[in-house]
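FAQ: What does a multi-protein file look like?

Like this. Sequence, then tokens, then the next protein.
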Amino acid sequence: MRSVPLQAYGLPMTNACEPMPKQCVIPAKYRLLMALAAARPDGVSAFAADARAAGASEAEIAEAVEIRRSVGAAAPRARTLRSYLALWAAAMMVGAALLMQTAAPVRADVCGDVGGVQASAGGCSQPGAPAGDPPPQAGIPQPPWLSVIQRRDPQFADSYLAMRERILRDGAIPAKYKLLIGMVTDAIAAHPDGVRMLADNARAAGATEPEVTEAVEVGYLYGGTAALVMGSNAFGS
């Protein structure tokens, strides 16, 4: 028997944990913002009102709507290659950019180098030592496909990077919850790589395993069993 999301029956979902026999770990306003990003068009206003009543700011609601418009249920299905890449970039920039803004330093700081050079397996590079292969430069990790786009369309790649920086500057939702919202929309949109990357980046931004699990379950409420199966990519192999 195929599972049908509760929203398909028109049931109000003021608490996305109501069907789940456990205590929620994600604050109510962020669960409702996830629901807003995942909901059908006729449910957006109601979820925005519920999120506002649960304490979400207008900036947080606007940001959830922006994520929805970029990679969520409101995104059109018929796309050109260029528009598809733009939508995928919106999801990836959330994970790649916010990870570097929120994750604790784990690389070059142990060598006393604030430049971000990664230490080799043999230890830290000493001044004056043979350079060999240049060490990787510090910066925001990029998805594998971006270098291909940069070679073919530098202008588009620049616009992607500018969009990422704008989201970082104007962001109102805490990083881990923004990443989980993106993960939910990717689960519903059947993007397994996006689910995997955004889940990992949410963990790096401070999301706990119960929070990741709960976000996957919220996705199920609005995307059905297919979204639950796709959401399982958040847990690795």
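And here is the next protein:
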Amino acid sequence: MPSNRAPVRSGLSIASPGQRVHSLHSLGCYRTLTVATDGDCDGILTEAACDDANPASSGLHSAGKPAGAPWRVPQSGREGLFEAHDSRVPIKAVASALCTRWMAGRPVWAAKHPVRGGIAWVGSIALSLAPQARMPTRNLMLPMVAVAATVAAAFSVRRALLPALGDVPAGTRAEAIAALPMFRSGRLRNTLPLDESLEAVGRAIFGERSEATQPESPLEYPADPLPETPGAFAVSWLGHSTVVLDLDGERVLFDPMFGERASPVSFAGPARYLRPPLALSEVGPVDVVLVSHDHYDHLEMLSVQALSDAGSRFIVPTGIGARLEGWGVSTAQITELSWWEEASVGALRVVSTPARHFSGRDALDRFGTLWTGWAILGTEHSVLFTGDTGMGPHFAEIGARLGPFSLTMPEVGSYDAAWTDVHLGPEQALAAHRALGSDRLLPVHWAAFVMGNHSWTEPGERLLAAATPEDGLLLPPPGMRVDFTAEPSTWPTTQWWPDTPFRTAAQAPIVSTGL
């Protein structure tokens, strides 16, 4: 029946008593409000009328749209700034009006519209937690605008002072991310969910830490020089996840990180205990750079800029192109791929493969760009670089669709019982290698930074203990060039590191959840 209370007007719609916001969900690039009749809600902002049969009595004035028609908040966020005839509206209604689609914890349009983004950020987080109090609209909006302006200024200054943070996806790039099948409920997600429980957080904070997470003094290993002309099939591991692969006359560089710290600043953050055995200038011309994800230990601004200046091409997961462009890389040099998409580099096929991990370069953009592994398929040989990942059924699928492989390079370090879903650990790396149907295994993502609680030699020790001769385990010291066209007797298969106390697989098992 018609209401005797004045409806609330907003940029979204008008609602009378009898309507309550029931849920929020993402729809493309928009935030949609879904409503359900739930008693007197004193004019909460909704997108449907109380009485579909009588729009006039329900007070629906939404630019001629029929009662119950969907209303969307444009990516600009302009419609989120409401006006109300009734100057007193529920605080949670304000938050609902200001919300737009969220990605990685903040609106995707915040970079282009920082003030409006700040308003939505502050309003929707703080006010959605508030009780259903009532407050004059003018008194509410003025402090929100002030706080939002401060947040926006801090956001802009922070990125100006810390360019290594990189730009975030916006515009058509953000829309492309939102269209991916792994984008759900406002962020990119893994096929298998991650364990983000409080118990896992507690293990991360209070877990036991080895006394030998790094060597007593920084390590240096002599490196084999790289030929100017890429070879037929050879690989040089440069520590952590930085690898140079020569395949079919093309030079591929994985996860370029030649800096001293995995951090946006030079004075804090994980520092190297293993210096790069080759300087970037000694790598020679690189045909293509493959990036697995945007964490600092895999993607470094100065390395990217040097490679860009040299004319290298970049193939990266969807969204990371924004980081590169912000650092001056030409759009023409960048190819962005989602899982199972591919590109050509000379005679090579480069395929993005699923991984179980996450992304982000600060607390505000987690899960904002895609993470991936890479399959490189040549005329005779093929290679699988897992990227950072937990265990999952994706390895069997990759093997079935693209295998068998001549070489796998799985990540084996930085694991812990507190985050078993985002890193494999040695034993699961072997299981992934076997599922992929690969001839040889070269472990990466270890022996450079302290990023876990295990001793720095533990990944290698546990691999040696678990591997069989059929696994084809290779253990080159950093900088050694392994030429697969040479005699197999020249390939390194033994320990190169000093004896250091470590935990066995029985003492510290790593088993991903959801399997």
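Q: Is there any per-entry metadata?
A: Some entries carry free-text notes. For the entry above: Confidence is low (pLDDT under 50) at residues 1-138.
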